[in-house]
Amino acid sequence: MSSDSTKDGTVEITHKTIGPSRPSRIRVASHIKVRDLRNAIAEKGRFPVANLRMILRGKALQDEEDGDDLYVTLKDEDSLIVAVIPKRPVGVETYDDDDDDDDELKFQLPPSTSRWKRKLYYFLRNKLKLPDIILMGLFSLSLKMWVIIILWFILAPIAHRWDLGPIFILGTGFSIILLNLGKRQPGDVSAYSIFNEDFRELPGTYNADRIDRDIRAGHI
C-alpha cells in the first residue's frame, strides 16, 4: 500500500466493465460500504446504479445482509469486475417476469420499520424459513394488539379453571365486535335505523312499511 493511501485511508483500485471497454481506476476509502462503492463506480462510469453488479476476488458483493449494510476492505491494486445488466426492452417478456411478480407478492417491511423489528424479520425469514403469509400476520399487528393477544392467552386458562370458559369466549366475541365498530363522522347514517336520529332509515330499506306502501300502490 502506498504512503499516500495510508495517510488518508484511501486506496486506488481498478474496475473492469464486462465488454469492450478499458479498465478504469478510482480512489475510494479502504474500508467502505458496498452500497457507497457501487454508487461511486456508477457515478464515475455513468452507469445505472440499480443495474450494477460487482465482483471482488471471485465473490459477488451484496449491499446488505439481514437488513444491515455490508462493508468491504479494499487494498491498493485490487481489481473489481463490474457488470451492467441491460434494461429489458419495452413490451418484451422474459422468463424472469414470473420471478419478478413473485417478488412483488412477497411480504416486505416498510422503510420506516425499526432496527430490532427488521432484525427479527430477517431471522424468522432466513433462519427459521417462515412463509410470507405467517410473516405478514406477525408484522402487520401493532404492539398494542400483541399485548391484547398475549393477555388473552394468559387469562384463558384462568377462566377455564374457574369454569368461566363460555363467558370468557362470549366476552371476547362481544369485545371484538365493539372494538371494531369504528366511529361515524358527523352526518353519516348507520345501516341500522335504531342508531340514527329519529330512527331515520337508509334510502331503499325494504321493511314492513315499504311492503305496505307497495301493496297499496298496486306494485305487488
Question: How would you portray this structure in words?
Answer:
It is a single chain. This protein is α+β, with helices and mostly antiparallel strands. Among the domains are: 10-84, Ubiquitin-like (UB roll) (Roll); 115-181, no CATH class. Helix content is 42%, strand content 17%. The protein contains eight helices and nine strands. It has helices at 3-8, 34-45, 97-105, 115-127, 132-140, 143-161, 165-179, 208-216; strands spanning 10-17, 24-29, 31-33, 52-56, 59-60, 64-65, 68-69, 71-73, 79-84. Strand 6 (64-65) and strand 7 (68-69) form a beta hairpin. The protein is elongated and about 95 Å long.
Number of strands: 9
C-alpha geometry: elongated
Roughly what fraction of the amino acids lie in strands?
15-25%
pLDDT averaged residue by residue:
75
Please state the CA-atom Rg, rounded to the nearest Å: 31 Å
Q: N- to C-terminal separation?
A: 98 Å
Q: Can you tell me the CATH superfamily of the domain at 10-84? A: Phosphatidylinositol 3-kinase Catalytic Subunit, Chain A, domain 1
CATH class identity of the domain at 10-84: Alpha Beta
Q: Major sheet, described briefly?
A: 5 strands, mixed
Question: What is the topology?
Answer:
Elements: H1 3-8, E1 10-17, E2 24-29, E3 31-33, H2 34-45, E4 52-56, E5 59-60, E6 64-65, E7 68-69, E8 71-73, E9 79-84, H3 97-105, H4 115-127, H5 132-140, H6 143-161, H7 165-179, H8 208-216
Q: Can you give keywords for this protein?
A:
alpha+beta, Ubiquitin-like (UB roll), single chain, 220 residues, 42% helix, 17% strand, two-stranded antiparallel sheet, 5-stranded mixed beta sheet
